[in-house]
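Notes from the 1:1 (GR / supervisor)

We went over the backlog. Supervisor wanted to see one worked example end to end before approving the batch request, so GR pasted a single chain during the call. The sequence is below; no edits were made to it. Supervisor asked that the structure be written out right there so they could see what the output format looks like.
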Amino acid sequence: MKQKMKKNAKISYGDWTPYVESSTEQIDLTQVRKLAGVLNIDETAFEVENDLPPMWHWLFFLHRAATENIGEDGHPKRGGFFPPIELQRRMFAGEQIIFHSPLKIGLPATRTGTIINLEKKVGRKGPMILLSAHYQIKQNEVLCIEDTHNIVYLDNNDPTPTPGGDSYVPPNNKWYKKHKADPVFLFRYSALSFNSHRIHYDRDYAVNVEKYPGLIVHGPLTALLLSELVRSKINKPMKSFSFRGQAPIFEPWPFYAIGTPSKDGEINLEAVRNDSVVAMTATAKFD
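Structure output shown during the call:
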């Protein structure tokens, strides 16, 4: 269901007009258990009416498109809910999430969203567009999650440097977990999240067309691994989670999820590449 909005000059793009997008679907137990398998978690730990873990709502309300409407990069063709921005590179830059009440597995939920900001800029490497989409997810008319996605579009197609040699050593006084993505891991997450962007599973495309040194680890997947590090240490409801991408993570190089707890219920997190480059920063907050 789509509800048209009045034109807003601040976020218009040519003839494109933003609208409210609304969809209702089941928080399906099978989908949850599939992600558990990808993350090496016992799937029997999840049952109907259990609380859905933080960030696992990304498995649902996925944008669908017919095969004939998929572009060369594997994404749906530009236009629709998102404006028809022509700049080639499209990346997930960050997100701010507020958890008001946990979603329950096995029950229907409704998500509504709209584009709330669009800025055209000229960066160090050329034109860029920053876009934000805001979503609300409700279950039984109760607001459970507010979620703002930040996406960046770039006109830069310069080759991205290969990560340097292994230099990062995680400190002993912090939480950490080492990860090393492989094509199967990235493909399984792409399949679960209905993300057909070829940079995550088609190495020939990623290297020769978008000029990356290898397959790219999804930004939301990196954030999920940071959140799961926290969930493995703290057994109480998370109130908010925000993250910001700073550099891409590539397969097959390893990377680390790092957590630094504080006394005020806040966890500072980083995803650090093998060459000590900080790829993502994040903050998880509790009561």
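Supervisor's comment: The first strand starts at residue 2 and ends at 4.
Batch request approved.
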